[in-house]
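note to self — DONT lose this again. spent like an hour looking for the file last time. sequence + predicted structure for the chain T wanted, 338 res
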Amino acid sequence: MPPQLLSASVTIVSKMVEITRAGTSIRDALQLQLQSFSTSDRSARIEQFLDSQRRQIVSLRDCLICRKNNQIMGVLLLVSQSDGTVYVWPAETRGGLHPDDDAAIRRALYQEATRVVDSPGIWIGQSLLETEQDAQSRELSEYGFPRLTDLVFMNRSIEPASENVVMNDTTGDLFWPSEPFDEATNAADFAKLVEKTYESTCDCPELNGTRDGWESLESHRHAGVYRAERWRLFRHEGRPAGLLLLTEHPPEAVWEVVYFGVAPEFRGLGFGKRILEAGIKLARNCGVSEIVLAVDIRNLPAMRLYEQLDFEQVDRRIVHARLQKKRSGTSRTDSTLT
């Protein structure tokens, strides 16, 4: 099947070339996209991408290329998930191009990428960059994917549990008794509580209002290996007060805090610390060696809490995002962050 022609086009060296989807040329496109990696690392990453697509974990169908004379001159990888998330990679071009041609190709690729992200069913196009990728960060901002914030990545080693502890996800011996996610009994409480925890949040507040609680939960399912026992809801006097969503990243014995929040009326009471302590205890009882998380660099209260619980900063990344903002209900307008 020939690649699908798209609306963007660019003139280089007096010849018109068009932006298409990579189609059957996806492996060649990935080779160019990952050209900065070592040969062995590049090959491994390409196989991971293709395997994830075969298993329908992600889709690479919107990977964009600019071709001239059967040669790929530029590529912009878009990795889509079924929850409406698109991961946007910075554009890459082949070496040896005239600077004007290079700029024109990159601009056309980003122009088409914004059309993909603005299409129905997509709620966010996001990019995660190393802090030294200043040129790519400026380019993303210029061409429709504004800089949102920086994320600080933290981890905490977990000491092994004592030998008499049963290794499972359902232990009731927690710092604060909680209940696992259950579609039939408490799914609505989870969804409502997620939305409440967005109120006055310091963690990426720009995302507040872009999804409802059900959409957020669906998105969090895609982070690592989902198991209902690792999603926990905490109540105070019978009322939902906070939640902790944990996921596993095999083959390493590592869990990630993919979401953690406390309802506004229960903040300032020490509940956040108790919830995280419960999660650490649960991870220890399951034989987990490490917990990782990411936090908005602007969320100083959360960072202080994590440090109190022996989380350490290990990395920092730049986040760019193009959002479709909600007006009411689940309808969204096509707009970007500013």
